[in-house]
Design a protein that fits this description.
The protein folds into 4 domains: 230 residues, no CATH class; 50 residues, no CATH class; 83 residues; 147 residues, no CATH class. The radius of gyration is 42 Å and the shape is elongated. It has 649 residues and is mainly alpha-helical. It has a two-stranded antiparallel ribbon with strand order 1-2. β1 and β2 form a beta hairpin. It is 73% helix and 2% strand.
């Protein structure tokens, strides 16, 4: 009786210990699953936040582009209406007393000229211009606010992915101070010069200027148009923004990941319109110079028409007289006509043109010599100005690196598009949706090879300086380490760097482990409710390369004996899921052993050793019956998932 009671108590205690052990294993399993799910949720939330931030930045950029389009349209409408008012209200040529004695009409005698009677249509046009100016000023302020929000979002995007220290808010404050100190002044100048200058409603004023032997009379509505040509700045701003957007930013937004966006946004808040102009001049010099020349030609011609029409009849009649800037009377573009047999009168005329003198020119030798010296000094002055402008227009180091990176993304986008077109053509041909066209296929293949070759060249050109910089930094670090007297701070920094490198190695191994576990679960789900045979002809070296000869001995002999029986029993059956699972397990165990050997601590963890031994014995132990579901396989592999806690060692 006593023996039976004792045996019953022992059996109960044994069952309880087994149940407690299973509960502990389940708790550990649940904790590890929760940790993995938490990491996945954090990763997904980070990716979702990155995607949302990129979408918000791109939305702000698109909104700013639409505002620039609207500003350019409103500015051109106001400028054209001002030109209409100028042509209607200008007096034209004012004749002298001798010309009036000869019968030439004076426009001052006609009360309808010069808008002195304040016609209604001119007042309506002035009101429309004032309304468009108010709308333009408000859209400029709103566009600058959008620009500020976009730059702030870019700065926050960069800082949150570089550091999460207390300096984050300080750097945001520095950026706000930079914007309010630098950009706001620029915005105020833009509003004052390129927006507020316009003919005011019900304001008509005549301006009289006394010149040599004549009087020039201007209308305020005509003179104000000269300053309203500054509204062309909105057109230039729109063109520069479009160029920079479609050449650089679009490829970054389409193909860029978080790293690409950080590299792009790191310099974006400090990019000004000067860099955009430099880039446009660098990529399209002929278009830039020709557009600049034509714009200056017509703007200068109309300004000369307004300024010279009261004193020159030719300027007051036809607009094309101002366009012919090489005419000697206009003194805009001066030419020297060299002839072999030049007479004294032609020489005097050439000197008159060079010295900007209409009625006075030097006639003595010393005077001509002085004029030549002055011309040479003028050439030197122009050369110095050109050199200064060239220096100002040259790219800085940060701008050069940014443009190289942006161009690399552009070539990457072209390579991706070419590969997609090539694969699309192959897919349509194989599916029978399109006839086989070898010429088109070869053309797409050549385009793919060309874009990939260009991308590879630019990628190698960009990575070679980075490699040299990394090697130089490593050499400097080794040199500092060999000096000896680096101090406690340097040792702490080196130790911290080593820990970061070890953490990166462990993270990479854990990613490989997670991928292997996902593969195991996918195989289990695919072969669920199927008989699974267990392979027994496996040695300890197949399970873990780091286990050595620990599995040889009695277990090995028993395993070999059962292997013969099992091989005879299942020789005709196909390869099942157990073979695939056991082919994955050695690689996982091997990666863990390599991670353990690369870690800083060389001591063997007893829990890990017991876990590895239990896994090896389970793999060598033959199964008497076939498993009927994947749940039993999961229970055998339950302890295997606890190896993910190795990353926290």
């Amino acid at each position: 009786m006593t023996e039976s009671v004792r045996q019953g108590i022992n059996n109960a205690l044994l069952m309880r210990s087994r149940s407690v052990k299973l509960m502990k294993d389940e708790e550990v399993d649940n904790v590890e699953v929760k940790k993995r799910m938490k990491l996945k949720l954090q990763l997904f939330s980070t990716l979702r936040e990155t995607e949302d931030e990129v979408k918000s930045i791109k939305k702000l950029n698109n909104g700013r582009l639409m505002i620039l389009f609207f500003n350019a349209f409103i500015a051109m409408v106001g400028l054209l209406l001002s030109i209409v008012i100028s042509e209607t209200c200008r007096y034209g040529y004012i004749p002298t007393s001798q010309e009036m004695a000869q019968g030439m009409l004076n426009p001052l005698d006609d009360p309808s000229t010069g808008c002195r009677d304040k016609p209604r249509r001119i007042v309506i046009l002035q009101c429309l211009i004032s309304l468009s100016t108010a709308v333009l000023a408000s859209t400029i302020i709103y566009g600058n606010y959008k620009h500020y929000k976009m730059l702030k979002a870019m700065k926050s995007f960069v800082l949150t992915r570089q550091t999460m220290s207390v300096e984050f808010f300080e750097q945001i404050k520095e950026f706000k101070a930079f914007y309010w100190n630098e950009m706001i002044l620029f915005d105020i100048r833009e509003i004052v010069l390129c927006c507020l200058v316009h003919p005011f409603p019900w304001f008509f004023k005549t301006i009289t200027v006394e010149q040599m032997n004549r009087t020039s009379i201007y209308q305020f509505e005509s003179l104000i148009v000269i300053f309203m040509f500054l509204r062309l700045w909105h057109i230039a701003k729109l063109l520069l923004h479009l160029f920079y957007r479609f050449y650089f930013e679009e490829s970054i937004f389409v193909l860029g990941n978080s790293y690409d966006l950080v590299k792009m946004f790191e310099q974006k808040p400090y990019i000004s319109h000067v860099l955009m102009f430099k880039t446009f001049l660098r990529c399209h010099p002929v278009k830039c110079i020709s557009t600049w020349f034509l714009c200056l030609l017509f703007v200068a011609a109309y300004c000369i028409r307004i300024a010279e029409s009261p004193s020159n009849y030719l300027h007051s009649v036809y607009f094309w007289n101002q366009v012919a800037l090489s005419h000697p009377h206009y003194n805009v573009v001066l030419t020297i006509r060299q002839r072999r047999d030049m007479a004294v009168k032609d020489a005097q005329e050439s000197v008159r043109r060079l010295t900007f003198a209409v009625d006075m020119y030097p006639s003595s030798h010393f005077g001509r010599l002085i004029c030549i010296v002055v011309m040479l000094l003028g050439i030197l002055l122009v050369s110095i100005t050109t050199a200064i402008m060239t220096t100002k227009l040259s790219l800085t180091q940060n701008e050069t690196e940014l443009l190289k990176y942006s161009e690399l993304q552009t070539f990457k986008k072209a390579a991706v598009i070419a590969s997609v077109k090539f694969l699309q053509q192959i897919y349509r041909t194989n599916r029978g949706k399109q006839k086989k066209d070898p010429i088109l296929l070869n053309k797409l293949r050549r385009a793919l090879f060309k874009t990939a070759y260009l991308y590879n060249i630019h990628l190698c050109a960009q990575e070679s300086p980075a490699r040299s910089g990394r090697s130089a930094s490593e050499a400097a670090r080794r040199k500092r380490k060999g000096c000896g007297g680096t101090g406690r701070l340097q040792q702490i920094m080196d130790r911290q760097q080593e820990l970061l490198e070890w953490k990166a190695t462990v993270d990479s191994k854990m990613e490989a482990l997670q991928g292997s576990l996902d593969e195991i679960l996918s195989l289990l789900k695919a072969r669920d409710r199927q008989p699974i045979t267990f392979r027994t002809e496996i040695s300890s070296s197949h399970v873990s390369p780091s286990a050595g000869a620990a599995g040889e001995g009695a277990e090995g002999g028993q395993a070999s004996g059962h292997a013969v029986k099992t091989r005879r029993r299942h020789s005709s059956k196909p390869k099942t899921i157990s073979t695939e699972l056991l082919s994955i397990l050695p690689s996982i165990d091997y990666s863990l052993s390599r991670t353990r050997s690369n870690s800083k601590s060389r001591d063997e963890d007893p829990d890990m050793a017991k876990l590895r031994e239990r896994l090896r014995r389970q793999s060598l132990k033959p199964s008497p019956t076939a498993w009927r579901s994947s749940e039993e396989m999961k229970s055998q592999l339950r302890g295997f998932s606890s190896m993910s806690s190795f990353a926290n060692v």
